[in-house]
Amino acid sequence: MAVPKRKHSNSRTGKRRSHDRVKKRQIAYCPQCSSSVPTHTICPKCGYYQGRTVVEPVDE
């Protein structure tokens, strides 16, 4: 079985892990109702996505 000859330094481990963080979701604004919506998702208020109404909005 292959075993590492030497321990990886803390800085080398940190360099490897530098891209592992959780990134913030991008926020866009719905062109129909101007509410803030995460990108690539249907607007929960009006059901609008990519130029058309995909889902009928739920009235509460």
From TrEMBL:
Protein name, per record: Large ribosomal subunit protein bL32
SUPFAM superfamilies registered for this protein in UniProt: Zn-binding ribosomal proteins
NCBIfam families per the UniProt record, alphabetical: rpmF_bact
GO MF annotation terms: structural constituent of ribosome
Gene expressing this chain: rpmF
GO biological process: translation
Entry GO CC: large ribosomal subunit
InterPro entries per the UniProt record, alphabetical: Ribosomal_bL32, Ribosomal_bL32_bact, Ribosomal_zn-bd
This protein's UniProt keywords: Ribonucleoprotein, Ribosomal protein
Naturally occurring in which organism (per UniProt): Stieleria neptunia
UniProt-listed HAMAP family: Ribosomal_bL32
Top-level taxonomy: Bacteria, Pseudomonadati, Planctomycetota, Planctomycetia, Pirellulales
Region (Disordered), start-end ranges: 1-24
Pfam families given in the database record: Ribosomal_L32p
Family affiliation: Belongs to the bacterial ribosomal protein bL32 family.
